[in-house]
């Protein structure tokens, strides 16, 4: 029946129009990372990068590829948010340089209105408690020997201090400062919905991480294993701190990545959305050497692609571009007056999720909806 076909086509065209209609804005792939193309009242870009394992060169490559840094490795991301999900150490040689890079970029980003969010992975905590099974001799040599390495990692050293002040186990990141903002959760491994200290999220997890790390990094540090015997978690570790570090905690658990049954994983994702209100749960830890993995309509995203030369995987970054646009086109009189966001007004919320690879961008998800601010 032609009329029905026509209606279906018209509806599809209208849906497409709604999806792609951004008055005056160039396609996102052409837009510079931090600009506010015409019509958008608010724009936030976020980039997340997974496990780096001592590969400073690939770390810098990925940052440049995602346009967070320029040719000289200075922050070029403007007000972008950059999240690194831990495991910068072990397997490779240049962990120290990677931590130095985060230290510098954190200030540069801050000065430009952006933000660097650093997380601890299981390998950072392993190094803290003296489990040095994956530390290479080249890394120790590069660090000036075991004693210097331990000193810098301790509460007396720059890196120990930096970890305690500027790193956490988990991060809750809203995509705008407004109450309607979708939020993302980041941790190194998978967040388990039945983890005992899930809520209040992420404070309960981060408080335990901080106390465990303080215990581990307060001199004298555990003698490195090997060659010494493994000494386990530091003396005085509480049951809750031990739970944080065990196989079901956010540093080690892989459930959202390695359980094959989508119904189970999507059930967990839904439970997490209900318990902690996050739209997407994002982590590293379980590598896929081809691509960034997304499941359950991208409510679960795994960003470890084995970036380090120790794995020889692919360079990758996750990009999220979040915009709010007034539903009506701005006045066409050529003025560039910024739109003032007003509570109670309607906006088109657009959340574009991309994987960035050396070969280009690949769309993971696009969600467009009308919201009231
Ligand atoms: C935390 O990070 C900022 C920015 O890099 C730095 O200035 C500050 O010294 C760091 N804190 C510690 C204790 O290292
Ligand atoms: C994913 O989105 C589609 C279309 O909106 C919906 O039908 C489906 O139920 C969603 N799946 C999950 C696991 O949320
Ligand atoms: C353009 O339109 C805006 C909003 O209607 C108005 O405030 C502004 O004065 C206009 N500018 C010019 C040059 O006409």
From TrEMBL:
Keywords: Signal
Leader sequence residues: 1-27
InterPro entries cross-referenced by the UniProt entry: Calcineurin-like_PHP, Metallo-depent_PP-like
The Calcineurin-like phosphoesterase domain, residue ranges: 45-287
KW Membrane (keyword) present: no
Domain of life: Eukaryota
GO molecular function: hydrolase activity
PANTHER family in the cross-refs: SHEWANELLA-LIKE PROTEIN PHOSPHATASE 1
Protein name: Calcineurin-like phosphoesterase domain-containing protein
Species name: Vanrija humicola
């Amino acid at each position: 029946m032609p009329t029905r076909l026509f209606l279906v086509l018209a509806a599809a065209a209208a849906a497409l129009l709604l999806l792609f209609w951004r008055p005056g804005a160039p396609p996102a792939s052409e837009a510079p990372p931090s600009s506010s193309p015409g019509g958008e009242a608010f724009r936030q870009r976020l980039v997340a990068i997974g496990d780096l394992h001592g590969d400073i060169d690939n770390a810098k490559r990925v940052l440049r590829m995602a346009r967070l840094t320029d040719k000289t490795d200075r922050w070029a991301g403007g007000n972008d948010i950059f999240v690194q999900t831990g495991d910068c150490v072990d397997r490779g040689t240049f962990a120290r340089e990677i931590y130095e890079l985060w230290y510098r970029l954190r200030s540069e980003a801050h000065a430009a209105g952006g933000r660097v969010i650093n997380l601890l992975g299981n390998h950072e905590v392993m190094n803290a408690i003296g489990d040095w099974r994956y530390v290479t001799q080249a890394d120790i040599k590069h660090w000036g020997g075991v004693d210097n390495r331990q000193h810098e990692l301790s509460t007396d050293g720059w890196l120990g201090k930096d970890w305690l002040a500027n790193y956490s186990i988990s991060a809750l990141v809203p995509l705008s400062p407004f109450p309607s903002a979708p939020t993302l959760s980041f941790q190194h491994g998978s967040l388990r919905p039945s983890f005992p200290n899930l809520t209040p999220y992420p404070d309960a997890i981060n408080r335990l991480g901080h106390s465990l790390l303080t215990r581990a990094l307060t001199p004298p540090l555990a003698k490195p294993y090997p060659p010494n015997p493994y000494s386990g978690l530091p003396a005085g570790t509480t049951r809750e701190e031990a739970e944080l570090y065990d196989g079901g905690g956010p540093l080690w658990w892989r459930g959202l990545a390695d359980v094959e049954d989508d119904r189970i994983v999507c059930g967990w994702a839904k439970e997490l959305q209900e318990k902690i209100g996050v739209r997407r749960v994002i982590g590293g830890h379980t590598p896929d050497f081809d691509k960034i993995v997304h499941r359950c309509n991208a409510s679960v995203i795994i960003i470890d692609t084995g970036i380090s030369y120790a794995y020889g995987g692919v360079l990758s970054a996750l990009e999220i571009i979040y915009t709010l646009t007034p539903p009506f086109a701005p006045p066409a009189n050529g003025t560039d007056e910024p739109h003032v966001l007003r509570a109670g007004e309607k906006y088109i919320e657009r959340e574009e999720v991309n994987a960035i690879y050396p070969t280009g961008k690949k769309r993971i998800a696009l969600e467009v909806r009308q919201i009231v601010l």
